[in-house]
Amino acid sequence: MRQAEVVVYLSRSCFYCIRAKHLLKSKGVQFTEVAVDGDPALWDEMETRSGRSTVPQIFIDQRAVGGFSDIASLDRNGQLDCLLFPTTD
Predict the structure, then answer these.
(1) Do 34 and 43 contact (CB within 8 A), yes or no?
(2) How far is CA 5 from the centre of its chain?
(3) Based on the number of CB atoms within 10 Å of its own CB, is 19 exposed (0-12), middle (13-18) or buried (19 or more)?
(4) Domain count, the chain
(5) Residue 1: inside a domain
(6) Fewest beta carbons within 10 Å, which of 20, 26, 31, 70?
């Protein structure tokens, strides 16, 4: 089963960042962490890519899907797994 590329822009001390990481790990998802703490260039990159200025910002296969609340909602609706593990028909 193919796993989508997942990138999480985060701050190390952010509660919602920790929860987002926990949710992804609970699904067995490998992801790249981009810590934006104290790095204005990375923060700007995150804002440019996502259009948002809060952490975490999560990207699945280059698509901005939002923060923890957004992926938690996708998970409750049964849509997160489809994004994380797309079928190749």
Answers:
(1) no
(2) 10
(3) middle
(4) 1
(5) no
(6) 26
Q: What does the pLDDT read at residue 1?
A: 79
Q: Show Cβ contacts of residue 1 under 8 Å, excluding neighbours closer than 6 positions.
A: 85
Range of the domain at 30: 6-84
Q: For 37-56, b where at least 16 C-beta lie within 10 A, e where not — what string?
A: eeeeeebeebeeebeeeebb
State the Cα–Cα distance between residues 14 and 89, nearest whole angstrom: 38
In tens, the pLDDT along 23-65 reads 999 999 999 999 999 999 999 999 999 999 999 999 999 999 9
**CATH number of the domain that residue 44 is part of:** 3.40.30.10
- Please give the Cα distance from 70 to 37 (Å, whole number): 22
Q: Is 66 among the domain residues?
A: yes
Q: Which structure tokens are listed for 24?
A: 């992804």
